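Hi,

Apologies if this is the wrong queue. I'm a grad student, and the batch job for Trehalose 6-phosphate phosphatase from Eutrema salsugineum produced an output file that my downstream script rejects. I'm not sure whether the problem is my script or the file. Here is the sequence I used:
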Amino acid sequence: MSASQNVVVSETTRSSIITSSNNNSSSSPKPSTAPPGLISISKKKLLKNLDVINGGQRINAWVDSMRASSPTHLKSLPSSIYSQQQLNSWIMHHPSALDMFEQIMEASGGKQIVMFLDYDGTLSPIVDDPDRAFMSSKMRRTVKKLAKCFPTAIVTGRCIDKVYNFVKLAELYYAGSHGMDIKGPSKGVSRQKRLKQSLLYQPASDYLPMIDEVYRKLLETTKSTPGAKVENHKFCASVHFRCVDEKKWSELVQQVRSVLQEYPTLKLTQGRKVFEIRPMIEWDKGKALEFLLESLGLGNSNDVFPVYIGDDRTDEDAFKMLRDRGEGFGILVSKFPKDTDASYSLHDPSQVMDFLRRLVEWKQMQPKM
Ligand SMILES: O=P(O)(O)OC[C@H]1O[C@H](O[C@H]2O[C@H](CO)[C@@H](O)[C@H](O)[C@H]2O)[C@H](O)[C@@H](O)[C@@H]1O
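Support response: The file is valid. Your script probably expects a header line. Output copied below for reference.
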């Protein structure tokens, strides 16, 4: 198999780079959501770049993409990357969900609200060690109350077991491994309802042994790179570079790619300082959202108002799904302007908690039907 068969797609391909120079808006795949100043590189274009150029340059393209996706780089260069005007324009297109709370509730117009929450960077702050990405007890209490008011799902790149160890709420729906492992609540609904809802959907179950094998090979291959961390998420795997010295990034890319060359049915994507290795199947967080709505009997309803909150590129699939369905909306958790299909923004997990609290308070004030 040729290396290019092993499709290499960076999740940062649409990650927005805000420049102080004039925007070439023709490069943006979604002019309607990208305010002036945003340059989006389409997936197709990046694939072409990555596949046409020779091996060495392809590694460089990856390293560039790793740099571009690094929030610390954005943080250290804000004024040279985007102007205040561009920032204002982005905020105008993606206002704070807290500032717009009343309007959002009005738009929900009495429909059934369903909540979808990403985990890392949304419910828990981003930290160096993925095993220590704890959610605060305040956040847990808030999510618990939220689930009493609305059906609530956690949609994450982590496997269900790992995310459950952090969240510890049995009354939630879980879509782990980027939506490839879906489970219904085991508590908080009546027994009969629970039996009906005893959801278990694993569209990539055939990949289980392959992911396990790849995980072990990645562990072995990357052990010479200090700071690299490999995680097994059952139907996908992650290789973290948050703690890897930038000088070693190209070495790490080569190591990961060398392992993946033997697995043409897996794809490599990039999240927040992490490589994600996933089966090449037509399934993502957006599909998981759709599946969950259908399982709730709300798939073809005009009466549903889904709200998805997430911070990462993989959450864009869910934001887009909501836009395409014309239902509810997405909220991007970010302090920085990014090209996104979300309608609103929140800065960080503490603002997410404030928003969820207000939702609970709002629900409690509604007349009982
Ligand atoms: O879909 P998500 O819930 O956002 O999962 C995506 C990745 O999240 C985790 O990594 C991220 O959070 C870590 C802890 O804060 C951080 O160290 C890392 O840099 C982030 O990318 C998780 O560990 C990954 O396996 C997931 O792919």
